[in-house]
Amino acid sequence: MSVVTKPVTMPAPSFEAGTEDNYLTHTTGFLSWALTLDHKRIGLMYLAGVMASFAGGGVLALLIRLHLWNPNIDKTQALFSNQVYNQIFTLHGAIMVFLFIIPSIPAALGNFLLPIMLGTKDVAFPRLNLGSFYLWICGAAFFLFSLFATGLDTGWTFYTPYSIESRGPVVAATMGVFVLGFSSIFTGLNFIVTINTMRPPGMTWFRMPLFLWATYATAIIQVLATPVLGITVLLLAAERVLGIGIFDPKLNGDPVTFQHFFWFYSHPAVYIMILPAMGIISELMSVHSHKGIFGYRMIAYSSVAIALFGFLVWGHHMFTSGMADVTTIVFSALTFTVSIPSAIKVFNWIGTMYQGTVSLNTPMLYALAFIFLFTIGGLTGLFLGALSVDLHLHDTYFVVAHFHYVMMGGTLVAFLGGLFHWWPKMTGKMFNDFAGIVSAAIVFVGFNLTFLPQFVLGTRGMPRRYASYVEEFQDLHRLSTIGAMMLGAGLLVAGLTLLHSLFYGKKAPMNPWGGATLEWECQTPPPHDNFSTPPTVGDPYDFSNIEYDPKTGGYFKKK
Amino acid sequence: MRRNPTMMNPSIQFNPMTPTFLADVNETFWFPKQASTFAPKIDFLYDAIVWISVLFFIPIVIAMIYFMVKYRQRPGYKGSPEALHNTVLEVTWSVVPTFIVVWIFWEGMVGYLDMMRLPVDTEDVKVTAKKWVWSFKYKNGAESDKLYLQLGRDSKMIMRSDDVLHSFFIPAFRAKRDVVPGRYNYMWFQPTVEGTFDLFCTEYCGDNHSGMITKAIVLNSEDYEKTLTELAKEPEDIVARGKWLYERKACKGCHYAGAEGAQGPGPSYNGSWGKSVPLAAGGEATFDENYVSESILNPIAKARKGYENASAMPSYKGQLKEDQIEALCAFIKSLQTAELPKK
User: Considering chain A, what is the average pLDDT of its residues?
Assistant: First the structure.
């Protein structure tokens, strides 16, 4: 980690001069990190953890794409055997979902930002916060075990009865999921209590930054839905170990019941993944347009609406499983309700740019890429919600492309945008903006090249999770593989840009982008206690008195 | 993008010169041939949603790019931060999409109900899914590993799974239904084109999931009846009968024999007879009638070395009769000198 040696000079007289003491240098030594209760250090440790998981899951994704370069009808020519391929896609899914996307924004960026945005010293329960990080480590260890033990091959969904009879380490993996669930619940609980009780005087609900609205909505889902996942994996483990018949028809169980249990969590989990990303985009669009967010209330309400509707749509994962017709139709109708608040957000983000002063820098370009990709992801959801069309598209590459547009084009791109946006605050270093823009461009093109062909593969009937395929699909698969390699290269450029800044980056000013939320009134990097005097709370999207100061290369608030 | 069904030429051949992402066996950019009564309706709704999406997506992207350029930060320009709210606009862009998605929902529901409502007079086929083969049983008792269908006849699939979840999918028919162990699932369709179509398993079912592919063959009623009669005849010759059973009793899904069947999930039959084979539990066993018969009735008893992590073979106790096991033995014996798969 870099060490900032010079104090940051403040142009605004209302702030005392910075000291050398910041949260990175406050104390030193391994234990000062391992046993820290500081939300910022916990956030950074989470960041390192989720980035490592992402790198691991990403390499697996590239192996999948390389394997699918050829149709593999002739097994002797295949890169991997079917068994190994199945293990690779299982671990890719499980690592990306449970170790990366779910904790990425709330636990890494959320932990760092939430107390600072609220102008407080820390979250409500700092020890619980550290505890949830160690639970994450513990869950990750279970996953590493399944990686190196005889492979897990059930798919990340653990569908019964295959997961009952599979010889992979299903119990170890589901215990990992169980432990990670607690980590997620603790983070959610902490955020709910912090936002409810520790908002500073003057910060009413509707003066909260939208990132906090999104985090709050996410935390509600984490607390309410995750226990059901815990119950599901416990039942699965009980069935496997003790032979109690719940989901396996051989023991008079019902496999479709497992799907209901599983998706009752895992569909809301989709919103655990995307809502914080939407929160980041609301911040980024406003700050980099130097203009207040368009339709603040609609965005705030739509976050809550998505969180609530998200609980009622799990059945759309089971349209082909043989549910009763009425159930199927009701789930289809409810599914469409989620599309409206999502559409409202997209329109509001575009409206935010109207008559603004748009800085086309790295975080903003990632935000714009998000809007483009998320819109495609959302619109393709319409095809899958429409029952008759879904019967054709269900479990094909169309679905694969759809959820990658939402999860990766959405959450990952927003996460990267947010990371670039708050990186100067977190590390005290500016990154090379040109390199960042290049990474955004490569990621954008590579992403579309990877996943657009997969929509066509899906409509033409290519099923998911196939280690080999009929030859007519080869050209589209090859396009997709080329795209994936490009996407990997783009992400590598993004990573190297950030790493480079740690060693060679210019010192970051206090407010490099001109944001009006409280984190930009905190020193860079923040001191251990965040604020020495409680900051005054204003409108988080009032940019009228924020001025650029060429001396520091940053912005300051006029008195 | 719309097609006229009467224009379709059932004898379109695959042209190796055409790049497959432009047009190969697909009739259109998006879809394979429309070969059932469902297909035109589903394709119509799909195309309608494509146009609705384009209608939303293009203005969004144009507005985004236009604002990016017009309001970009540059010397001498400062935006005005007034436009923060516009009730009329916000209500419009909430209400208009609502009506559109209600229409999409309605159309999807109507199409779905058409597909779920089983006709009264149908040609029934019993479908059994098993790792990793399909098996089809017809009204006259005939069995096959390919699905034979009659042109223009409502066909009902009565589907059950012997082990894990599978899913029955014929892209050309736009028809899909999961095959769930412990219950019967039904589906129906009416083929409208003669020909051979891909039939995929689309629910992950283990090692050889991607090999669980067969064909749906649509024949005119004369050929259909002829084929069914043909299929019902069990071969006289014992070796041929063994092979006949090998193809119909799901052995093919895991065991490589002669030059067909799946490579990998289970040991190959080729060149095994009479040899000594290593066992997972240690020791060896002689590959003879006793070994084969025990392995069919109680597969785990003498599992082969190297297949410890393979998906377990189900027992065939009660499913194969004594003389059928003998026929299978004869078939395996006939492969004594056949070459092993390269791997």
Answer: 91
The SS3 of residue B195 is strand
CATH architecture classification, B5-116: Orthogonal Bundle (1.10)
Between B20, B203, B213, which is nearest A474 by CB? B20
Let me know: does A170 contact A150? Beta carbons within 8 Å. Answer: no
The DSSP code sequence of A451-462 is: HHHHHHHHHTT-
Q: Does B281 touch chain A (CB under 8 A)?
A: no
CATH class of B123-232: mainly beta
Q: What is the ipTM of this complex?
A: 0.91
Among A95, A414, A111, A424, CA closest to A274: A414
CA proximity to A507, closest of A545, A551, A541, A461: A551
CATH H-level superfamily of B238-334: Cytochrome c-like domain (1.10.760.10)
Domain residue spans in chain A? 41-289, 360-508, 516-538+545-559
Q: Find the angle CA(A487)-CA(A492)-CA(A498) to the nearest 5 degrees.
A: 130
Whether B187 contacts chain A with CB within 8 A: no
Q: How far is CA B169 from CA A142, A463, B133, in A?
A: 36, 9, 13
Q: For residue A153, which residues of chain B lie inside 8 Å, CB to CB?
A: 206-207
Top CATH class, A41-289: mainly alpha
Q: Helix A325-353 crosses helix B87-116 at what angle (to 10 degrees)?
A: 150
**What value does the mean pLDDT of chain B take?**
86
> Is pLDDT above 80 for B18?
no
CB-side neighbour CA atoms (13 Å) of A149: 15
